[in-house]
Amino acid sequence: MKLTQKHITGLLAAGLIGTSGLQAYDWKQARKNLSPKQQAIAQTAALAAVGNLEKLSAAFDQALNSGLTVNELKEIVLQLYAYTGFPRSLNAASTLETVLKNRRADGKDDPTGTQVQSIPAGTDKYALGKRNLEVLAASSLPSHPPVFIQATDTFLKEHLFADIFARGVLSYSEREIATVSALAALGNVTPQLQAHISMAMNVGVSAEQIKGIMAVIKQTNGRKTATAGLHALEAVLKSRYTQP
Q1: Does the predicted TM-score (pTM) go above 0.85?
Q2: DSSP per-residue string spanning 44-90
């Protein structure tokens, strides 16, 4: 995937950095780079990540009205525990359950959606997770590379990128939209945010759509957090497209 230098310059100059540029940045237009479904994914993920349950309740209701299925929202909540921890995920799950009960009481019949896929018995989950991560990273990866805490490699491959990413329901691009949104909302996780911005782009999420995610973050978490997300995007673009 290549961009011309002119395109790179345009992306980096379009209000991503600099106080004057950000003052003129069109956040509303940037948000339109995402479809209504993608906006709903980003919004629910961001609010779940920071534990804003009051706004999350309204966001879940809006997401269901926008056409997301019950299982799609469940998958967003489930995946986020790997990035935000079980307390945030469990609280989001309880919030979603309450929203669904209230909607049923109001006579709304929300579609369940696609069923979760099961990993066949006997599957080498480390190998499966490694293959899934290679798709996201757009490169081949070594098996069992030495890391400071060796179990982290095993847990990431066998659990996050096998048990979770193999469940289906959401596409890889949708999962990465949720992940980028959650990490941007959390803040202070720049290496992981940049890594997942790059992964998102590897599975079809454009730089313009990443800017759309940050426009959602501005609404849910504030300008400062959204601006940090734009800086992370800028760093990724420079790394990906300005190397010789």
Answers
A1: yes
A2: HHHHHHHT-HHHHHHHHHHHHHTT--HHHHHHHHHHHHHHH-HHHHH
